[in-house]
C-alpha cells in the first residue's frame, strides 16, 4: 500500500535590516530548511555605496552586496572576487568593492532599476532564498534630535553626536517611498519576521519607515522578533537599555508590534574590545527585564555573545537555534505569559 503524501510546510522567515548583523543571521538560517527573504535597507550614504549613489543616483549597493554573498551558493572564489575592494592607491577605483560596481551597472542597464537588477543577480549567484531591496529608488534618512534640530543623511546623523528623537525617509525626487509588492507579500505570508541585529536608527528603522513596509509588519500574523544589539552605538543608542531599543521601535510605528525580544545577558570581558578598531561601540546594552515586559513583549535572555578579533558580535548559530525553537510555537502559545 502506498504511503499518502504529506504536504510539509516550509517555514517562511523574513529578515529585515542592514549593516554587518544581517549576513550573520542569514548565514545561520541557511543551515536549516527554511524559506529565507532578506529585506535590505537602501538609505546608506557612506563609503563606496555613498560615492556610487552620488555619481549615478542608484540605490546604495553595499548592504545588498553582503547579503547576496551570505545567501550565495557559488564557489568561494567567486564570492571573494565579488567582495574584493580596490586598494587606496588605485585612485580611479579606490575603496570600491567589485560587487558594488556590478550591482550599479546591472541597475543602470536598460533602466531596469535596483530591484530587478538584484533579482537577476540572485539567479547568477545561485541565491538560496530571496533578496529584496526595501525600495527601488534611493532613499534619504532624516532625523530630528531632542534639541529640535534636523539632519538628512545616514552618515551625518550618526556623526552628529546628538540624541535622536525620530527618523523618517524621503526620496530624492519627492516620490512617496514604497516597497515593491513582492516585499509586502513576503512579510504578510511569513511565519516569522526578524529585525536585526543592526543599528537601530540607521539599519532597522529606515526599512520600517517606508509606509507600506511598516504597515505590513504591524498587520502580519507572523511573530515579530527583535534581536537586540549587544553594545550601545555612538551617535545612536548611547546609554540605551534593551527596553529603550524596543520602546523606540514601537513608538515609531505607533503601536506595540514587537512580539519577542532576544537579548544577550553574557557579560563582555573587561578590556577585551579593541576600542580603536571598533570605535563606534561604547558600552554593553543594559538589561531591563521589567521595562521589556512593559512593552508587551516576550523576553528570551541567553548567552548570544561571540568574541572574535577583539570585537563583540552575536553568535549567529545560537541566535538562529532560538529562532528555530520559536518557529515551533504559535504566537498564542506565549500570549498568556503577558497576561
Residue-averaged pLDDT:
86
Strand content: 15-25%
Strand order of the largest sheet: 3-2-1-7-8-10-12
First-last Cα distance: 49 Å
H/I helix tally: 14
Question: Based on CA inertia axes, which overall geometry fits?
Answer: globular
Counted beta strands:
14
Structural class: alpha/beta
Q: Please, what is the CATH homologous superfamily of the largest domain? A: CofD-like domains
Q: What proportion of the residues is helical, as a percent range?
A: 25-40%
Series of H and E elements: EHEHHHHHEEEHEHEHHEEHEEHEEEHH
Count of the domains: 2
Look up the CATH topology of the largest domain: Rossmann fold
What is the CATH first-level class name of the largest domain?
Alpha Beta
So, CATH architecture of the largest domain?
Answer: 3-Layer(aba) Sandwich
Q: Give start-end ranges of low-pLDDT stretches.
A: 1-7, 46-57
Pfam family, one: CofD
Family: Belongs to the gluconeogenesis factor family.
Function: Required for morphogenesis under gluconeogenic growth conditions.
Organism: Ligilactobacillus animalis
Amino acid at each position: 500500500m502506498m504511503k499518502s503524501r504529506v504536504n510539509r510546510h516550509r517555514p517562511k522567515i523574513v529578515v529585515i535590516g542592514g549593516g554587518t548583523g544581517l549576513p550573520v543571521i542569514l548565514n545561520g538560517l541557511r543551515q536549516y530548511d527554511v524559506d529565507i527573504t532578506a529585506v535590505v535597507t537602501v538609505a546608506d550614504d557612506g563609503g563606496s555605496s555613498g560615492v556610487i549613489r552620488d555619481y549615478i543616483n542608484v540605490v546604495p549597493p553595499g548592504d545588498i552586496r553582503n547579503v547576496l554573498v551570505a545567501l550565495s551558493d557559488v564557489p568561494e572564489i567567486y564570492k571573494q572576487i565579488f567582495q574584493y575592494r580596490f586598494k587606496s592607491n588605485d585612485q580611479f577605483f579606490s575603496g570600491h568593492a567589485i560587487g558594488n560596481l556590478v550591482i550599479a551597472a546591472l541597475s543602470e542597464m536598460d533602466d531596469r532599476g535596483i530591484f530587478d537588477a538584484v533579482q537577476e543577480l540572485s539567479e547568477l549567484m545561485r541565491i538560496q532564498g530571496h533578496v529584496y531591496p526595501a525600495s527601488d529608488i534611493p532613499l534619504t534618512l532624516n532625523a530630528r534630535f531632542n534639541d529640535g534640530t534636523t539632519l538628512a543623511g545616514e552618515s551625518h546623523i550618526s556623526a552628529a553626536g546628538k540624541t535622536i528623537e525620530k527618523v523618517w525617509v524621503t526620496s530624492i525626487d519627492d516620490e512617496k517611498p514604497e516597497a515593491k509588492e513582492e516585499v509586502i507579500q513576503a512579510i504578510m505570508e511569513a511565519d516569522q519576521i526578524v529585525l536585526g541585529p543592526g543599528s537601530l536608527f540607521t539599519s532597522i528603522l529606515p526599512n520600517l519607515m517606508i509606509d507600506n513596509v511598516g504597515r505590513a509588519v504591524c498587520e502580519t500574523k507572523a511573530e515579530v522578533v527583535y534581536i537586540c544589539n549587544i553594545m550601545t552605538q555612538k551617535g545612536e543608542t548611547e546609554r540605551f537599555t534593551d527596553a529603550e531599543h524596543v520602546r523606540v521601535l514601537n513608538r515609531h510605528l505607533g503601536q506595540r508590534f514587537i512580539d519577542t525580544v532576544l537579548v544577550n545577558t553574557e557579560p563582555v570581558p573587561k578590556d577585551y574590545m579593541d576600542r580603536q578598531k571598533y570605535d563606534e561601540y561604547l558600552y554593553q546594552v543594559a538589561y531591563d527585564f521589567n521595562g521589556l515586559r512593559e512593552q508587551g513583549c516576550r523576553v528570551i535572555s541567553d548567552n548570544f555573545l561571540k568574541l572574535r578579533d577583539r570585537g563583540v558580535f552575536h553568535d549567529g548559530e545560537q541566535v538562529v537555534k532560538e529562532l528555530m525553537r520559536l518557529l515551533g510555537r504559535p504566537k498564542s502559545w506565549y500570549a498568556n505569559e503577558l497576561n
